Amino acid sequence: MIKKRFFKTKDEVEVTFEWPQGDESSVAIAGDFNEWNAQPMKLNKKNKAFSFKTRLPKEGSFQFRYLIDGETWENDHAADAYVANEHGSDNSLVSTVTE
User: Do the strands 27-31 and 12-20 form a parallel or antiparallel pair, or are they unpaired?
Assistant: First the structure.
């Protein structure tokens, strides 16, 4: 799940990425916005989801994937789009184009 918060006076968008908690013990996010360095997501026990919040520039689109338990790559089913990557699979895409 992806939540976006647009600011009227800033050229950035607050984006919250969420992965629902299941059997996984850890979830990290990697994308072109963090140079594909997997960053651990925090587990929110109240809403039973791993989450990561960041600010991204407006009017852009950014590729990302989730790394589950340090070994399995997954896409976000709520992504704005998907793009093919050089590994023969797809990356999730989040857009910060103003609506």
Answer: unpaired
pLDDT classification of 99: cutoffs 50, 70, 90? low
| Average confidence (pLDDT) over 81-97 | 96
> What angle is formed at CA 94 by the lines to CA 99 and CA 85, rounded to 5 degrees?
140
Specify the 3-state DSSP secondary structure of 90.
strand
Token digits of residue 8: 């009227």
**pLDDT number for residue 81:** 97
10 Å CB burial of residue 21 (0-12, 13-18, 19+) is: middle
| Residues ≥6 apart with Cβ < 8 Å to 30 | 36, 37, 38, 39, 64, 65, 67
Q: 60: Cβ–Cβ under 8 A, 6 or more apart, which residues?
A: 95, 96, 97
